[in-house]
Structures are given as structure tokens and as C-alpha cells.
Amino acid sequence: MAQSELTLESLAARVVDLTTTLTTALQERNSPQPSFSEDAPELLSPAPEVQGPRLQLVETLTKMLHLATGPTEYLIQQCLLPNADGLILDFLNRFDIWHLVPLKGSSSYAEIAAAIQLPEVTVRRFLKQAFTMFFFLEEAPGSDRIVHSAASAYVARDAARTAFIGHCMEDVRPAAAVGVDALQKFYVGHKTHSEEEEHCPQYLASDRGKVRGKAYWEFAESYEEPGRPKGYRAERFALAMKALSQTQLTAQVLEKFDWESLGNATVVDVGGSTGHISLLLAKAHPKLKLIVQDFPDVESSFNEVITTTEYASRISFNAYNFFEPQTLTADAYLFKSIFHDWSDKYVVQILRNLLPVLKSGVHIIIFDNIIPPDHDEQGKPVVPLSTRRLLGAVDLQMFVNHNSKERKASDWTEVVKRADSRFDLKGFYTVVGSPMGIIDIVFNA
After folding, report:
1. What is the CATH number of the domain that holds 24?
2. How many CB atoms lie within 10 A of CB 409?
3. Of 427, 83, 394, nearest to 247 (Cα)?
4. Are 301 and 322 spatial neighbours (Cβ–Cβ below 8 Å)?
5. 423 and 280 share a domain?
6. What pLDDT is attached to residue 297?
7. Would you call 135 helix, strand, or coil by DSSP?
8. Which residues are in the O-methyltransferase C-terminal domain (predicted)?
9. Is 141 left (phi over 0), alpha (psi -120 to 50) or beta?
10. Catalytic: 190?
11. Percent of the chain with pLDDT over 70
12. d(CA 291, CA 260)
């Protein structure tokens, strides 16, 4: 049915069918049902029988909400709500409201206000808006005491999640605000999109009245402000990536590659940060030896994460900049969420830097977003609306921070072959419910 033919009644009927399918699939797996309570499941089952109807249900509900809202109110919402939502998330995160309300407990407005030294009337004003976003709620309607909702409890349980919010609100949002300025400055009058990193909004963004004027990674490493150590943004970004991986069915996607086929192999996790992906591989595949490569100043954080685990003997750290020629010989090289930070010219350079150590049969495994086509041959959407919106948002975030992009399968094929014709793309592998996938490349000398 064409979108213009959809009605509230047809969508409502679809909602009933999908809800029944989803709840039945959860019951058959003895999986908990979604709820608003703070002990609600953080993720539903990764099984395709759950994720398929879940994503279809979200899309159907979104379309139904859009119809019920109407164009007039929709425009007003789009102009007002994104700014307000960002403001509230920034407030909750910078003042760490997440931890001022105890899990399985409550705090009063007055207690929260005293803890963060703001007027109680201001705290009430901001929290009332947070409630409309499903963050926190009053213990009872009209109560002075605040308790956690499912969403706020989820954030409070893991510092990586507050790090991700901080990255998006404090690092990305100021750059996004000057996104159109960057288009006007660098792109008007040009036929093609620049591949230069400095032609992105990040360079025009400012903090505390000072224009950044440098690449995101350099900015994050060098930025300092009163009360926070130099480089805290870089450390926060590394932690934030852990939170992001929790939402992308990372383990399921990772297993789309046949790691057991490598045997007793050495795998280099290029740009692997603190080693959270290598840790997953070490747990699942005892024959693998893993080497995490990243900048030297990441090693201390890596040690904090890895050395206390039972897998420390199989996971080591090697200081490396992937813009330099690779020096380690291995059976496979893994790039998790690396290339979407770079435009094609830099991806080509990174891949070519592997050539000095590559032998025939070595795998280059790219673990990154794979943008599906918009429609199939019959004109039907390939992925649900919520997934398309999320992928589009990540793509724009890559433009804002790095002047890079997310890639379709054809884009990946083009950039890999541009690097070297001896790179043989063996396949693209995805799972339902995740925007990410595995791209398996074998080097043929």
C-alpha cells in the first residue's frame, strides 16, 4: 500500500497484528515483555523472529502518530522539540541527575536541587520536561519524589552510556549547529563533495567562545577546561563507543564471520581502543590471539579493562597509528567502526598501509555500518523507517565531525577496489535489528 493510501484504521489493524506477533515471539522464548519500570529489559531478544516484528511495529506506530499529529502540529514539534530535548539531555548528563536518584529508591526535588546547587523551581521545570521524554517520573502523580523510569535507569547503570550522551551533546551538537554554515562556506558552487577533513562543521564549531579550528581527534585530545583534565573528551569518546556497541547486536554481528575457520590465528584489532571487541572474540574463540592497536595514550585505559580479565594472556596492546605502514604480521586485521570516520581518500590510505605485511589468504574484516538500498525492485522499503532514520542520523554525524560518511555495499566495493585490486570482497553479512555488518575481504597476492 502506498504511503498516501494509509489510514489510521489500516495502521491500527497492523499494530494489533504486529503486537500479537511480537508478544507471542517473546513468550515462546520466555523473554520478558517491555515495560516502563526501571527493571524493564534493556534489549529485546536478538532473534529475527523478535526483531523483525519489533521494527515493523515501531515503523507502523510512527506513521500512525504522524497521521494523528497532522502537518500543522508536526511542524511546530519539529521546530521546538529537538532543541528542548537536547537541552534536557545535556542538563541530565552534566548535572548527573542519573545518579542523584538512586536505583530502587527516590529523591525529592529539594534534595536534587541542593545537590546541584540550582533553585528548586528550575530543577522542577527541567525535570517536568524530562518526564515527557520518559526519563524519570514522579513516584506518584503530584509527588515531590522522583524515581527512575526504564530509560533513566538504563543510563544510570553504565558510565559508558553517560559518556555517549556527553559526546553527542557536548562534542557533536555545537558542530551540528554550524552544519549549514559549513555547506555555505565549503560546498556552494562545487559539483562534488570534498574529501578534505577540514571541510566539515567540526572546524567551525566553538566552545566557550573559542573556535575549534582542528580535526575532531586533535580537538578531543587537546581540549581542556576548568575542573576537567586535558583530553577528557577523547577518553569519554572511547568509553562512549562501548555504550554504542551495546545497542547494535555487536556480538551477533561479529559472529557472522567464521572465526573458527582461522584456527590458531593472530587477529589485529586496528584502532581497537580499550579492547572491548577483542574481549568478545577472546571469550567466544579460545584459539585466537588478539592484538589491539591504538594510540600510545590509550594503553593505560586498555590495561584497566583487559589486565584483570581471564583473557589477558591472549589480548595484548600495540601502539600504532593506522596512517603509518603496518608492521605486525597477522592472519586477519579487524577494523571496527574505523572507516566511517574517514572520507574515501583516507580509507584508501589506511588500507594501503596494510600492504607491506599482507600475504595471500589474509582476511581484512571490516565491521561497520552497511547502508541498505532505499527500496527493492518492487519499490518497497528494504529496511524499516526507524532504521533508515537512525542510519541517516549517523551518516550526518559523520559529516559533522569528520566530513566522512556511511556507505552502501556498492560504496564499500568501490573504495576497497580503489585501494588495491588484489583485495577480493568475499561477502557482506548482516543481522536483523542492527545497522552494522561484516565485510569480508581476502588479499590475493
Report:
1. 1.10.10.10
2. 17
3. 394
4. no
5. yes
6. 83
7. coil
8. 241-419
9. beta
10. no
11. 98
12. 17
Q: 201 with 57, same domain?
A: no
**Distance separating alpha carbons of residues 24 and 42, to the nearest angstrom:** 19
Distance CA(290)–CA(278), nearest Å, equals 6
Residue 370 near residue 394 (C-beta atoms within 8 A): no
pLDDT 10s digits, 195-204: 999 999 999 9
Write out the three cell numbers for 47.
532473534
CA–CA dist 351, 292 (Å, integer): 17
**CA-to-CA distance for 433 and 54, rounded, in angstroms?**
9
Q: Which pLDDT score, from 0 to 100, does residue 111 have?
A: 99
Residue matched to cell numbers 578534505: 196
How does the average pLDDT of the chain come out, rounded? 94
**Buried/exposed code over 269-280 (b: 16+ C-beta within 10 A; e: otherwise):** bbbbbbbbbbbb
Q: What is the mean pLDDT of residues 383-409?
A: 93
Within-domain flag for 376: yes
For residues 237 and 220, the answer to whether their CB atoms sit within 8 Å is yes
Catalytic residue of the set 340, 363, 375, 402: 340
What number of H helices and E strands is found in the chain?
A: 17, 13
At residue 365, φ and ψ (nearest 5 deg) are -110, 115
Q: 366 has which bridge partners? A: 335, 439
Cell digits of residue 376: 527493492
Q: For the whole model, what pTM was predicted?
A: 0.87
Domain that holds residue 71: 3-155
CA dist 135 and 98 (Å) reads 9
DSSP letter at 381?
Answer: B
Tens digits of per-residue pLDDT, 55-82? 999 999 999 999 999 999 999 999 999 9
Report the pLDDT value the prediction gives residue 427, as an integer from 0 to 100.
Answer: 94
